[in-house]
From TrEMBL:
Subcellular location: Cytoplasm
Its job: Plays a role as an inducible effector molecule that mediates Fas resistance produced by surface Ig engagement in B cells.
Keyword list, A-Z: Apoptosis, Cytoplasm
GO CC aspect terms: cytoplasm
Cross-referenced InterPro entries: FAIM1, FAIM1_dom_sf
Family: Belongs to the FAIM1 family.
Any one Gene Ontology BP term: negative regulation of extrinsic apoptotic signaling pathway via death domain receptors
Name of the protein described by the UniProt record: Fas apoptotic inhibitory molecule 1
């Protein structure tokens, strides 16, 4: 196994199907560019005369578009920035916190990461899109699914405040799970 000597950047990207690790190697003498997603080689270019530019690839089950920008800062120094769906990683994650809810929980000794995509009401658990059943209840909606033999429910109720909108709560075996901050 070749040692990653030209590793210049590592990013962690939280998507609905999990947290993905993106690693980038840049040989500033050979112009070599290698992109790894979750340890798997996605792009390899051995000789590049142009040391600046971009590499585009996809990440995760939903094939989310990612681009690494390589810019010269000064002399032989380079800056590497990651864009997800055309937005800087920071902007993408800020926007994502508005469109998704994430819960981290442990059930029967197993850790689970549950993500609700608010726009579609899709529920993901440890990288799998879950089968769900939705129902209207007196004060909002309930989305039911099961994880590791446990029955789970995401309750959606109005906050009564226009700015806050709808509040989503994960309940597992009558226990409310606090939302995780990623």
């Amino acid at each position: 196994l070749e040692k990653m000597t030209d590793l210049v950047a590592v990013w962690e990207v939280a998507l609905s199907d999990g947290v993905h690790k993106i690693e980038f190697e840049h040989g500033t003498t050979s112009g070599k560019r290698v992109v790894y997603v979750d340890g798997k080689e996605e792009i390899r270019k051995e000789w590049m005369f142009k040391l600046v530019g971009k590499e585009t690839f996809t990440v995760g089950a939903a094939k989310t578009k990612a681009t690494i920008n390589i810019d010269a800062v000064s002399g032989f120094a380079y800056e590497y920035t990651l864009e997800i769906n055309g937005k800087s990683l920071k902007k993408y994650m800020e926007n994502r916190s508005k469109t998704t809810n994430t819960w981290i929980l442990s059930l029967g000794g197993t850790d689970y990461r549950v993500v609700l995509e608010k726009d579609t009401m899709d529920v993901w658990c440890n990288g799998q899109k879950m089968e769900t059943a939705g129902e209207f209840v007196e004060d909002g909606t309930e989305t039911h699914f099961s994880v590791g033999g446990y029955s789970c429910c995401i309750k959606a109720v109005s906050s009564g405040k226009r700015k806050e909108g709808i509040i989503h709560t994960l309940i597992v075996d009558d226990r409310e799970i606090p939302e995780a901050v990623e």
